[in-house]
Amino acid sequence: AQSVTQLGSHVSVSEGALVLLRCNYSSSVPPYLFWYVQYPNQGLQLLLKYTSAATLVKGINGFEAEFKKSETSFHLTKPSAHMSDAAEYFCAVSSQIQGAQKLVFGQGTRLTINP
Amino acid sequence: NAGVMQNPRHLVRRRGQEARLRCSPMKGHSHVYWYRQLPEEGLKFMVYLQKENIIDESGMPKERFSAEFPKEGPSILRIQQVVRGDSAAYFCASSPTVSGNTIYFGEGSWLTVV
């Protein structure tokens, strides 16, 4: 079975500071890993994904994540936080079923940006 | 190319009524997924369907919940005799037939049971 643990349900940073959201996964097979962002009362938007190519993955809005197999981690970072980054962030791992993907999500991390 | 379309966006039902949530996948996508997000929680997989077939319903509650994806028309998630605990956001997602390593989410349907 696959699982995801997001360390810290709430993270607060100052505008312009580094954003670091932590995600550790468990998977018996090489995983596909994803980060999604959810703004209030909206759906999920894909930020980036890891699919066994480059271990450093760049996504939208200046976010990136690094896949570290030895640490079973896929932490999300952004060098300089912007007020518009305030949202809920979800890490997810997928298992492949019949050619498609079924996602297992973490509990989410709510990011707050302080002016 | 329109995204995954869900309706209604917001639905209020009294206890004991039925709720029907609709999802039209992205054009060209034949895989549909339903996820539920309870308050203050992450999304939980409910069911995965292809046209006219339920492939994996391991996340569906055993009673009152059903899903379909007919040959024509949207996918429907049906909840009979709703209870307060069914209040949640229900998200539909779809993926392409061949290259399925990304799924695209709709904006969700928020069900409130009063």
Walk me through the structure:
The complex is a heterodimer of chains A (115) and B (114). Chain A is mainly β and 115 residues long. Chain A is built from no helices and eleven strands. In chain A, β9 (87-97) and β10 form a beta hairpin. The model of chain A has no long low-confidence stretch (mean pLDDT 90). Chain B is mostly beta strands and 114 residues long. Chain B is built from no helices and eleven strands. Chain B has strands at 5-7, 10-13, 19-24, 29-37, 43-50, 53-56, 65-68, 75-79, 88-96, 104-105, 109-113. In chain B, strands 2, 4, 5, 6, 9, 10 and 11 form a seven-stranded mixed β-sheet that branches. In chain B, strands 1-3-8-7 form a four-stranded antiparallel β-sheet, with no helix packed on it. In chain B, a hairpin with a 7-residue loop joins β9 and β10 (104-105). Chain B is globular and about 40 Å long. Chain B starts with a strand and ends with a strand. The model of chain B has no long low-confidence stretch (mean pLDDT 91). Chains A and B meet through β4, β5, β9 and β10 of A and β4, β5 and β10 of B.
Can you describe this structure in just a few lines?
The complex is a heterodimer of chains A (115) and B (114). Chain A has 115 residues and is mostly beta strands. In chain A, 0% of the residues lie in helices and 60% in strands.
